[in-house]
Design brief:
Elements lengths: L5 H28 L12 H5 L3 E6 L5 H9 L17 E6 L4 E4 H6 L12 H5 L2 E6 L8 E4 L7 H7 L3 H11 L2 E7 L7 H9 L7 E6 L6 H10 L1
Parallel strand pairs: 1-5, 1-6, 2-4, 6-7
Antiparallel strand pairs: 2-5, 3-4
Helix pairs in contact: 7-8
């Protein structure tokens, strides 16, 4: 991985510190006065400004989200499971840590050093399906990756989650620096829930990238057909 020059790193930190001070002294008091958090989103904390760049992974089940993250990191992360059937049933923040461990969602939401306090508004049902996977991986010194549950079709899947998956995905997308939408070249059908997620991503076009996974497993003619469909 390319090392960021010291002058760029220091300049970036100075800009972040300046924005944080401006928000705390000028903008946050106005948000409190007009109860901004009651109709839009929670107030930002210092952890929101100090957080590392975040990559959000979204896709239907078995498109290779977890495998993609493992390839990106060059190793497996605690709690990762890979298989042909849905294996990831929770949101997982894959982040740097001095040792390998899994941190439950309730602890993440109350930690003043992490930018996940706003997720408390989705309730205990969601926090029970949220966790952090920490490991001493060099790539994670510069970023955090959010792995998400595989999206299935049908109304039953939406109800069985116990929380509003689409709104949670929107919350993460608003704060992510990049959103990767993964598609399987063998099955391009988009479920109703995935369609709703794509709808709430409107306005974030500049940070969305589409990844056509497993495209090396189909011939050129089928690949052209996939290109036309997308």
């Amino acid at each position: 991985m390319t090392t960021v020059p010291d002058d760029i790193a220091h300049g970036s930190k100075a800009v972040t510190e300046g924005l944080k001070k401006m928000y705390i002294s000028k903008i946050k008091p106005l948000e409190k006065k007009f109860a901004f958090e009651e109709f839009h989103s929670p107030l930002l904390s210092e952890a929101d400004f100090d957080a590392k760049p975040t990559i959000l992974m979204i896709g239907q089940y078995s498109v290779g989200k977890t495998s993609f993250i493992e390839y990106l990191l060059g190793e497996k992360f605690p709690g990762s499971r890979v298989g042909p059937e849905p294996t990831t049933d929770r949101f997982c923040a894959v982040m740097y840590g001095d040792e390998e461990r899994i941190v439950p969602g309730n602890a993440l939401a109350v930690s003043p050093d992490l930018p996940y306090g706003g997720l408390s508004m989705f309730g205990t049902s969601f926090l029970n399906k949220f966790e952090a996977s920490q490991l001493p991986c060099k790539q994670l010194e510069h970023m955090t990756v959010i792995d998400t549950p595989g999206i299935l079709s049908g109304e039953k899947q939406r109800i069985s989650r116990g929380y509003d998956f689409v709104q949670v995905a929107k919350w993460f997308a608003e704060r992510a620096d990049m959103v990767l939408l993964l598609f399987d070249a063998h099955k391009l059908d988009i479920s109703d829930e995935f369609q709703r997620v794509i709808e709430v991503l409107k306005g974030h076009d500049d940070k969305i990238r589409c990844v056509l996974n497993k495209s090396d497993q189909i011939d050129q003619q089928k690949l052209m057909r996939v290109y036309v469909c997308t």
